[in-house]
Amino acid sequence: GAMSRKKLQQLLDSLGRTSKHFTKSEVECLVKLFDELVAESRSRFAAVGFDCNMFRDVLYRMFGMMDDVMMDRVFRTFDRDNDSHISAEEWVGGLAVFLRGTLEERIKYCFEVYDLNGDGYITRDEMFQMLKNSLLKQPAEEDPDEGIKDLVDIALKKMDYDHDGKISIVDFEKAVRDENLLLEAFGPCLPDIK
């Protein structure tokens, strides 16, 4: 592993106490997995955790995620302190929401993923970018941008409760509580739990 036994034990003690949604033994498995993945990566950052590329690899291997833009966004939501690495704590904390989060937690998480510039709103432009990115897999005769603009309009009609032309967390939460399928409206950012 990459961590010393002592550090591992300290980590398990503190995370075992504070972790939401995971039992002590699950925390232990997740931290060990983290440690193995970091060691296996032989990255020069191994001391601090996953960098974005390692994390993408994990999201792909473990959860079948393939969309680079979404994976980058997931990385940023996991990386709470914005140091461009995911520590063991951030890994366990992120996975708690990712795998076991309450609806409330998942709403907050998806909103953060979709709020590309972090200003507290999902704007037309952000929706357009994400939908364009997730839908441009099929070749189309007509201008695909038109179709995406239509989708953005539909999303706004459905989700912009205060009619200010963008979606706030309050709008988003109302929309998702009304219709759970809207949780991942702008791209797959949660694992398919089989």
UniProtKB/TrEMBL annotation:
It comes from the Eukaryota. Keywords: Calcium, Metal-binding, Repeat. Residues 66-101, 102-137, 147-182 form the EF-hand domain. The keyword Metal-binding applies. Coiled coil: none annotated. CDD domains: EFh. GO terms for molecular function: calcium ion binding. This is EFCB1 protein. It comes from Ramphastos sulfuratus. The gene is Efcab1.
